[in-house]
Design goal:
rod-shaped, alpha+beta, 12 strands, 24% strand, 292 residues, Alpha-Beta Plaits
Length: 292
Amino acid sequence: MTMLKQKFEKDRQRYRDNIRGFQPIELCLMKRNNAEQKVKQHLDDLQMEIDIENNVIAFEGSVESVKEAQIKLYEMKSNFGKRQVKVSSNMCIALYKSKDVVHFIQNILEENGLQAVWEINESSLLICCMQEEMLDECTEIILEGIKEEVIEYDADSVPYMRTDTWAKKKDSLLTHYNGKIGICIAEDETQVIVCVTKDIHKAVIAEVKQFLDSSTIMSENLYYSKEVIRLIEKHHRQEITDIENGQKAYSVQIKTLEHYSGIYVCGLSPGLQETVLKVTKLNGKVKKTDSF
């Protein structure tokens, strides 16, 4: 009976209290650092919950335990380091919200024995870490976790950038590197802007550059005698048209230069090479069979 009375009295004396003075980012950091378990470790009668959604920490236990837990949390908060840092673009800002990016950067922080979180404030990050002296290292890891690169190109020389061919390539990259990449074309259509986590940076940039290289219109001037070029224009125009049509998939064009000084050939690399071979072969045929 005495034990039941003691339990009843103990339950009757349980004290409840809430704290609302912490910032949401501070609560996130405490949660990530397992503050609840660490504070309750030596306070057996304490119940404590960090409620980030409602921005409150709830305590229940003896008066002594609740007060001691609150002191521990305020001491923990007093050591926090905070810093506001600018981010280069809206696309990078969007990536910092991605669960995949958060997981990637948090793994790097943990591998370095660090605890930090961040929140988005328009075009900047508010970074919060457990110790002021760790702030520089945490900031460096978080900012270097995402790389942005601008790749320039000549819009007139890369016709595929305005077609479904580029759209499909972009979708392929976004799907393959889901959650860790942002990619867009600048408004003036002279740049591809890529924003990615640093672990996939080199691979993504290589893929984009390879696409641009393979999609760039190249040109070459073929110099033959004026007599041969006149004959090609007069008697073999259909063969030139057939060559162009055969390489239509590579945007090939064949034109006679001014004053019959040569033949201009342009197109995507595979088609250009094939066209040059065929035009050169036609030149040889004309030289052998046609009289001047």
